[in-house]
Amino acid sequence: MKIRELLKKERTISFEFFPPKTDEGYKELFLHIQNLEKLSPSFVSITYGAGGSTRAKTRDLVLKISKENKINVMAHLTCISHSKEEIIDILKDYKNNGIQNILALRGDFPQGETNHIDKGLKHSTDLIKIIKNNFDNFFSIGGAVYPEMHPESKNWDEEMKYLKLKKEMGMEFGITQLFFDNNRFYEFIDRCNKINLDIPILPGIMPISNYNQIKKFVSMCNASIPPKLNEKIEKYPEEVEKIGIEYAIHQVEDLIKNGVDGIHFYTLNKSKATILIYNEVKNLI
Ligand code: FAD
Q1: For the chain, which domains are there?
Q2: To test ligand 1's pocket by mutation, which of 162, 197, 221, 268 has the most ligand atoms within 8 angstroms of CB?
Q3: 161 C-alpha to ligand 1 centroid (Å)
Q4: Where are the beta strands (DSSP E) in the chain?
Q5: What is the per-residue pLDDT across 16-37, written as a single tens digit (0 to 9) for each?
Q6: C-beta of 152 in contact with ligand 1 (< 6 A)
Q7: How far is the C-alpha of 164 from the C-alpha of 73, rounded, in Å?
């Protein structure tokens, strides 16, 4: 089902997975998917490796979950280093297989990689345009949004100008970069309202389970960890998982009370933390 239709009917719950690197990783992932499908997610999404590095793996995982688990799936797709023709091939294949939702992204080259091939697609707007021009309204199109600003944007005016352009080109809903301070999210929603963006924005939540991993993520994507949360984890490092789950529960409760359109969980291919959080907040959803 198209996510734009779902968002008219319900507050969505969604889970993000990435294609594992090993057979063992796939076995584990499908056990976690079995656990998570009991929560009846509105959709799940599968990441795409920058520059097409997981092209076949993303496609196969999207189709397998859609066909075998009968879960509504959104495929992430990045456009840098693909040509327009390659993108159209990928989308035709999804269309033929009944996949109706695409998260349209630019993507990033891995740090330090300089030998990439530029095939003309430079921004998510280029990808959104291809989807709209070649497939009418077949796909529901989402895009990435950044409550703490994309690291490459010079200022908020620039950030919001291009976000508005993404919407005008055909982006129907946004999913946020992970964040830990809900005030940053609410400030961002105010900025969206000021430019009349008027599309659903789904907050992306990642419960902290491994402090070093989170520190790496936040430094890469311009997100901040509130000082009180930082201090607590540094004081009780052996309790990081418990602290992370409790924090995420409060974060999600507050977001739902403030009327968000849905919650998107960055699961890191696990189920325990997401299930614990979901069970605490399900009565509010
Ligand atoms: P863009 O929308 O192109 O924006 C990048 C920068 O360019 C911003 O500063 C923006 O303001 C500016 N900009 C936008 N359009 C234009 C334009 N037309 N002209 C000039 N400037 C413009 N990465 C992956 O590799 N695979 C994934 O599966 C993946 N999934 C993600 C899921 C979510 C929910 C999020 C938030 C991010 C994800 N990413 C993924 C990371 C993403 O690819 C990076 O954050 C990347 O740096 C930007 O992608 P974008 O689509 O936001 O780019």
Answers
A1: 3-284 (3.20.20.220)
A2: 162
A3: 14
A4: 12-17, 43-46, 73-78, 101-105, 140-145, 173-176, 201-202, 204-205, 262-266
A5: 999 999 999 999 999 999 999 9
A6: yes
A7: 26
